[in-house]
Design a protein that fits this description.
This protein has about 170 residues and is mainly alpha-helical. The chain is built from 3 helices and no strands. Helix content is about 80%, strand content about 0%.
């Protein structure tokens, strides 16, 4: 009995596997797509000319789009390189300022070790605070200038590319 059941199961699974896309067909009859023969007609000259003009116009539009996309990719690449260089310069400047401020802090700590009276401490602390305020103000101005320069340089290729695109369109 198990042999009969197994054989029946194999037959059903083979029947289901035979359907298209590996899906079971559930006993649905298969129909073939009818094939219609198109009559051999001559295409009118006007229609052919219009199709050729459309094809030519499509090829021109594709070529222009391809050139524009390549220019846009180059523009983005140049902008990215400019921004990356500017970010590197900015980070190097930050590291330089961190070193300067760290040295000033150690100098201040060294000076504090030599203080012998409260008046000397106040004088040293006031001098250090005034000096650090001036240094930090100058550093902030320098960072602001550098950030503006980086932003201007990053915008320059974009501005040039956009003006080129508008000039071509006009």
């Amino acid at each position: 009995m198990t042999e009969t059941t197994t054989a029946a199961t194999k037959a059903k699974s083979a029947k289901h596997a035979a359907s298209s896309f590996g899906l079971p067909d559930y006993g649905i009859p298969k129909f073939e797509t009818p094939k219609f023969d198109l009559p051999n007609m001559e295409i009118s000259e006007a229609f052919r000319e219009m199709a050729e003009k459309g094809l030519e116009h499509t090829r021109d539009a594709y070529a222009k789009a391809k050139v524009a996309s390549e220019e846009a990719a180059d523009l983005l690449e140049n902008t990215y390189a400019t921004v990356a260089k500017g970010a590197t310069d900015y980070n190097l400047k930050l590291i330089e300022f961190a070193r300067t401020n760290t040295r000033a802090a150690f100098d201040y700590a060294h000076g504090l070790l030599g203080v012998k009276s409260p008046s000397e401490f106040i004088e040293l602390a006031t001098a250090h605070a005034r000096k650090q305020f001036d240094i930090v103000s100058a550093q902030n101005n320098e960072l602001c200038t550098l950030a503006q320069k980086v932003a201007t340089e990053a915008a320059k290729p974009i501005k040039t590319g956009v003006s080129k695109a508008f000039n071509k369109a006009a």
